[in-house]
């Protein structure tokens, strides 16, 4: 169960107690506020608070560019211009605070994004729940033979069953021993901060994660990418859907220039120009390494 009873009743209370405000409100984000979106088997993402909307980005940009921009571009055109030219600070005017429940090994990748504010559930203070991420059978992939940092075919049959059994039994046994070591009646009990070291990396943790839109886009570009590990990518994709409702114009520009766009090196750009003039460019004549050429071909294919 991703949400505890307490969390569910808190969300229900918050969603039925609207308050009037003079602050900017994004109608698309209001529908997400507090509600949990389930991710993986026990995880979720939910918006706890947010600041700003598309208009806040435009408003900040017009402070620096002046009212003249109003005549030459409409709001979404200005947002696209800012995104295209890497003008980051207007996007920093919007912020979002998320409550995320995620497996510890996903949290380890996530925490590498240093430009956010984080407050995590304390396993020194509290006892972690018996909740582990066990991949769905279709996500039980073998090690990739071509990419050391990736997955290959999905495991099937006896091998899949054996792996799932190992994951479940080991997690259950570790948790049983965690509980047995904790402070219980009739024994001194090991401190929570020490007992937790026996827990596996697929146990769930929770945190509040606050980030501005510029740095959130950076996170999403890396983690919603097909090269990101599936287990963090599904969180990033859920957040993408939320952001698309929150700041539709900014998200549209992000999708176009960052998620769906590519950066070309000077050599790659030169190749494109030569190809457009009808030249049959090959890896040997491109000036690129084999790896660069392979990626370039995949990009323009
Ligand atoms: C597919 C994939 C594979 C990865 N594999 C590995 C791996 O094998 N091993 C590994 O260790 N990591 C790995 N990472 C993590 C990666 O190297 C980054 O640490 C992570 O993506 C966070 O990126 P970031 O530093 O740009 O983000 P943030 O920390 O959010 O920073 C955003 C930007 O702010 C600036 N910035 C932030 N802090 C500083 C600072 N202290 N000094 C200067 N500039 C700063 C930088 O411009 C940075 O790009 C991987 C990431 C991905 C997406």
UniProtKB/TrEMBL annotation:
It comes from the Bacteria. InterPro entries: Thymidylate_synthase_ThyX (IPR003669), Thymidylate_synthase_ThyX_sf (IPR036098). The keyword Metal-binding does not apply. It holds the Pfam family Thy1. It is an enzyme of class 2 (transferase). It catalyses: dUMP + (6R)-5,10-methylene-5,6,7,8-tetrahydrofolate + NADPH + H(+) = dTMP + (6S)-5,6,7,8-tetrahydrofolate + NADP(+). Its EC number is 2.1.1.148. FAD binds at residues 89, 112-114, 120, 212-214, 218. GO terms for molecular function: flavin adenine dinucleotide binding; NADPH binding; thymidylate synthase (FAD) activity; thymidylate synthase activity. CDD domains: ThyX. Keywords: FAD, Flavoprotein, Methyltransferase, NADP, Nucleotide biosynthesis, Transferase. Binds 4 FAD per tetramer. Each FAD binding site is formed by three monomers. DUMP binds at residues 109-112, 120-124, 196, 223. Residues 1-20 are annotated as: Disordered. Its cofactor is FAD. GO terms for biological process: dTMP biosynthetic process; dTTP biosynthetic process; methylation. Pathway: Pyrimidine metabolism; dTTP biosynthesis. The active site is at 223 (involved in ionization of n3 of dump, leading to its activation). Catalyzes the reductive methylation of 2'-deoxyuridine-5'-monophosphate (dUMP) to 2'-deoxythymidine-5'-monophosphate (dTMP) while utilizing 5,10-methylenetetrahydrofolate (mTHF) as the methyl donor, and NADPH and FADH(2) as the reductant. PANTHER family: FLAVIN-DEPENDENT THYMIDYLATE SYNTHASE. Belongs to the thymidylate synthase ThyX family. HAMAP family: ThyX (MF_01408). Homotetramer. This is Flavin-dependent thymidylate synthase. It comes from Aliiruegeria haliotis.
């Amino acid at each position: 169960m991703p949400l505890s009873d307490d969390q569910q009743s808190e969300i229900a209370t918050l969603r039925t107690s609207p308050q009037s405000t003079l602050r900017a409100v994004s109608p698309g984000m209001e529908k997400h506020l507090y509600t949990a979106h389930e991710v993986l088997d026990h995880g979720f993402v939910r918006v706890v608070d947010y600041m700003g909307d598309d208009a806040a980005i435009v408003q900040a940009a017009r402070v620096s560019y002046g009212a003249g921009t109003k005549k030459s571009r409409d709001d979404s055109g200005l947002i696209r211009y800012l995104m295209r030219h890497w003008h980051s600070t207007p996007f920093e005017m919007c912020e979002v605070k998320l409550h995320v429940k995620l497996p510890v090994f996903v949290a380890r990748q996530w925490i590498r994004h240093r430009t956010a504010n984080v407050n995590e559930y304390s396993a020194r203070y509290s006892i972690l729940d018996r909740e582990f991420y066990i991949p769905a059978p279709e996500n039980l992939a073998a090690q990739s033979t071509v990419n050391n940092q990736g997955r290959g075919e999905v495991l099937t049959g006896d091998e899949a069953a054996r792996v799932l059994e190992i994951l479940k039994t080991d997690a259950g046994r570790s948790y049983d021993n965690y509980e047995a070591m904790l402070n219980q009646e009739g024994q001194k009990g090991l401190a929570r901060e020490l007992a937790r070291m026996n827990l596996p990396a697929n146990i769930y943790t929770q945190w509040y994660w606050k980030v501005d839109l510029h740095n959130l886009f950076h996170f999403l570009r890396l983690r919603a990418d097909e090269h990101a590990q599936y287990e963090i990518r599904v969180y990033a994709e859920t957040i993408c859907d939320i952001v698309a409702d929150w700041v539709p114009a900014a998200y549209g520009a992000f999708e176009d220039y960052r998620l769906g766009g590519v950066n070309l090196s000077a050599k790659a750009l030169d190749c494109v120009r030569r190809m457009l003039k009808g030249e049959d460019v090959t890896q040997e004549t491109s000036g690129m390494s084999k790896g660069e050429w392979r990626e370039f071909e995949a990009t323009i294919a």
